[in-house]
Amino acid sequence: MKKFAWATSLCLISLAGYANADGLSLGASYGYVNIEDSDQSFSFDATDTGYKLFGTYMFNNGFGIEGGYIDFGKPDDIFLGQTAQIDAEAWSLYGVGALGLSEKFDLFAKAGIVSWEADSLIDGVRIGADDGEDLALGIGASFNPDGAFGLRAEFDWFDVDDADAVWMASVGFELRF
Fold first, then answer.
1. How far apart are CA 114 and CA 93, in angstroms?
2. Are residues 94 and 114 in contact, defined by beta-carbon separation less than 8 angstroms?
3. What is the pTM (predicted TM-score) of this model?
4. pLDDT of 8-45, one tens digit each?
5. Which domain holds residue 125?
6. Strand 149-158 to strand 165-176: parallel, antiparallel, or no bridges (unpaired)?
7. Are 154 and 138 in contact (CB under 8 A)?
8. By CB atoms within 10 Å of each CB, which of 79, 136, 150, 172 scores lowest?
9. 3-state secondary structure 5-36
10. Which CATH number is 101's domain given?
């Protein structure tokens, strides 16, 4: 994960050099996170709030890249009378396709990779850790009334091999340069 985090950070830093070019935006979102996992011996289905920080560079009106950091919060569930918790975070890198419905309103879809780390806790005590790189998909819409400050709503789904479902629905803002 550290190599992926460095690569994503370098991509975002290199994009910062294009701050005067059309297409760069930086933003943050806050949202609802769901993590589900079950097998024959247990079932974990929990939600929490999480956030993400992202940078996007659109090469033209239809295609771009996005990288960012995601904190999935600490969803918890009751397991055998004790509090089970997942503490997860990730770095993401996406290809983004956008469809401008007007000068102010866009729909977008994205596909990429997420490099994640997660700790499993029982009553606050770490009992395990895992990490991996998996497929990430997202859809959303952005509204930018003045060309600089915009609002964004999106849904991200993560194909984490070690879980049945991991997703995040979020709203946030973006600053376009």
1. 7
2. no
3. 0.82
4. 444 444 443 333 335 899 999 999 999 988 776 777 88
5. 2-176
6. antiparallel
7. yes
8. 79
9. HHHHHHHHHHHHCCCCCCCEEEEEEEEEEEEE
10. 2.40.160.20
